[in-house]
Amino acid sequence: MGRLAVYKYVAMMFLVIQIVLVFFTIAGLYGGDVNPIGNSARAMLVYILPILIVANLLMLVYWLIRRKWLIALLPVVTVACCIPYSGTLLQLRSENKDADAQRGLKIATYNVAMFNRETSGFVAQDILANMRRQKVDVCCLQEYNDISGDKKNTESYSEYFPYHKIGRDDMVIFSRYPIKDSKTILFDDTNNSAMWADIEVGARVVRVFNVHLQTTGISRTMHQADKLMRQNIAVSNDRLLQTIFGNYMLGMVFRAGQAATVANEKRGSVNPCIICGDFNDVPYSYVYNTMLGNMVDGFKECGSGLMYTYRGKKPVRIDYIFHDQALKGLTYYTDEGITYSDHYPVFMKLSL
Question: Per-residue pLDDT tens for 300-313?
Fold first, then answer.
């Protein structure tokens, strides 16, 4: 009788865990619909969606082994609801190998991390060589530095990209097509910013946004903690976690306002728009949804394989290219061979 009671107790605990997983997973899917200001806990659920999906799959295996077919429907339905989210990270289609042979506009976005602060100019020139090899028409760079070695990058890049516009000091848009107009978008209380350029491609004008939203601050916090520890100054794990969490929450709030600013600017455009850059946020977050609006996520449209753009210890997708529905994507990919930054560059070919 005691063994039966334990068996029922364990079975009940697994059922409770399953119900909790279903609740948090569904809440996470809609966490990006709420502004993190005042809803931080719900907004944070979107960041652990991959973990929640894996947990549901493990529970599905458990229920199948136990032959609890009815209960197994809970993780099945939950995971099925996550298919649109999974599509922002993984696409099973094959890559379009013929995209470069088709007519269109090729966009690249890359956070170059100040060209790794290398002083000879080699990094900036090698990135240019890669852009040339990839046949890029418009290149949006974040954390840009115009001085490399003894010359300006805007001068050395001009042979391949005759046109350029610099926004705030660390933002630039290079183009092989004429730039008719441009604007710098400054964000309050931060060094991050955005910009746009109206680019004339044949008989059509396209507005390209280059965006760099607020950083998480985690890397800076870890660097400061490591520096203190090297000086034999004790750093409490609780204090470190509180600082990281606080910085992340503050970053979420900043990014929410910045994303709204860019989205409002985009709505004022009479030309079809492309929004690209380093959003410092994950798919399905409030920032992602605000920036996307009624636009198309290029990766979901024509990407292939597993998509992540950050090269840190936790690979995540935080760099994007979105476009208006009037345009059509041909191919979307990253180049993992370009490793000068903690980001990978993202490329997309569009048919205008």
Answer: 999 999 999 998 77
How far apart are alpha carbons 21 and 55 in whole angstroms? 8
Q: How far apart are CA 314 and CA 336, in angstroms?
A: 15
Question: What is the pLDDT, as a whole number, of residue 250?
Answer: 79
200 pLDDT band, cuts 50/70/90, is: very high
Count, residues in the chain: 352
Cα–Cα distances in angstroms (integers) from residue 273 to residues 129, 149, 284, 346, 348, in the given order:
27, 35, 21, 17, 14
DSSP-derived letter for residue 178 is -
Assign 18 a pLDDT band (cuts: 50, 70, 90).
Answer: very high
* Confidence check: pLDDT of 287 > 90: yes
Q: CB neighbours (10 Å) of residue 119? A: 12
pLDDT tens column, 228-242: 444 454 444 445 444
Tell me if 111 sits within 8 A of 140, measured CB to CB: no
CB 40 within 8 A of CB 252: yes
| CB 317, CB 88: distance < 8 Å | yes
Residue pair 352/105 in contact (Cβ under 8 Å)? The answer is yes
What are the tens digits of pLDDT across the range 146-159? 987 778 999 999 99
Q: How far apart, in whole angstroms, are the C-alpha atoms of residue 147 and residue 322?
A: 30
Return the sign of the alpha-carbon dihedral for residues 152, 153, 154, 159: positive
pTM of the model: 0.89
Residue owning tokens 């993780």: 75
Q: Which long-range contacts (CB under 8 A, 24 or more apart) does 77-81 make?
A: 78/21, 78/22, 78/25, 78/26, 79/53, 81/25, 81/26, 81/29
How far is 248 from 33, CA to CA, in rounded Å?
18
CB 89 within 8 A of CB 307: yes
